[in-house]
Design brief:
The protein is of the alpha/beta class and about 280 residues long. The chain is about 45% helix and about 15% strand. The protein folds into 2 domains: about 5-215, 2-enoyl-CoA Hydratase, Chain A, domain 1, CATH 3.90.226.10; about 220-265. The chain contains 10 helices and 10 strands. A hairpin with a 4-residue loop joins strand 1 (about 10-15) and strand 2 (about 20-25). Helix 3 (about 125-130) packs across helix 4 and helix 4 packs across helix 5 (about 170-180). The radius of gyration is 19 Å and the shape is globular.
Length: about 280
Amino acid sequence: MTEESKYEHVRIEHNEEGHYAVISINRPDKLNALQVQTLKEISEALESIEVDPSIRCVVLRGTKEYSKKPAFSAGADLSDRGSADLDPNNLRHQSHAMYRRHKYYDLIEEFHKPLIAAIDGYALGGGFELVLACDISIASKRSIFGLPEVQRGIFPANGGTQRLIKNLGKMRAKRMMFFGELLSAETMFEWGVLSYIVDDEKFEEFIHEKASWLGNAATNSLFLIKKSIDYGTQAPLNIGLQFEQMGYAINSQSKDVAEGISAFLEKRKPEFQGK
């Protein structure tokens, strides 16, 4: 079985020159709506990439070949009724159903290498919550964001009530969730949710540029930056600074550190090997 044939909901492509991979959610007829299977396949694809030294960055996106409208993901697939082993009328079963989804969002967020969300079109509900699990978010100007779950009598339970507040603060997060508004990429950038917004016609070129930069950067440095930010900031400052100190000591043994310093002194571009 080839790597590609393992997946029904996602597609994987490798850019060898840029040392990065692209995972595309490939459900264009459903605006890339997310089923549990979709999230499982994304996390499994990331797991396979985790131990591949030739891939040092990953782009997560919706498929370029859309049949309706462009979308990163329009959210959870409401036609997905969950597993047959779970009773929809049992509260404990329904809590476990969301645990299963949370498990995959957590695995995606904990991926060790830089993870770029490339958003072109809709990023709604669970799709927007998937963006929040990534490290860098790049959106085309035509992209639309929102958490419209309240309009269906449900709420953003794929980590939205927890992850969004870390980006926006309580008042803006509640505004998005209480009213289910759809907001522009410009607004999301101004609010600090997006890393970059790009003209539609320059989107693909810009994604390649940033993914290639990270794919050719010092992998150990990026790993330690990510872990220090994601975990060090969950603790008091003095403990977070211990993360930094230990991370610095670990990184000092990297071959890329020696290459980076040599390149600086020799006034040339460094050639990092990810070691």
